[in-house]
Design a protein that fits this description.
Length: about 130
Amino acid sequence: MNPPKKITTNKYEITLIEKGIVETYMLPNSIIDAADIHEMKNYNLQLCENTPYVMLLTSGHLSDTTKEARELSARKDFSQLTLARALLTNSIGHKIVANFYLRVNVPHVKTKLFSDREKALTWLRTFLK
């Protein structure tokens, strides 16, 4: 049985955009909490068939994550098969939150902020070789 290529909830969409690369799009006006982060992780593993993967995270207008969700996603014991994360945004507000996350939560997984999608994907692909 083939795994699904896309999973949609009322807060986010997760898409397997190519082998080993999942994109999580936080829907506009959504607030992602720790339970959502656990659910996203399970979906990522399902889409990648429990093999190592990288993640492209994009945020819709006025989407946000709770403090607990940011802390959870940064933890070493939560990283499992995640090799790297690219945070993609052009929003000044999301850039401020992303830079705060990178400095305060210090993710265990290599994580970098991008405003160019192709540069983000190129960077992520370096972890799949």
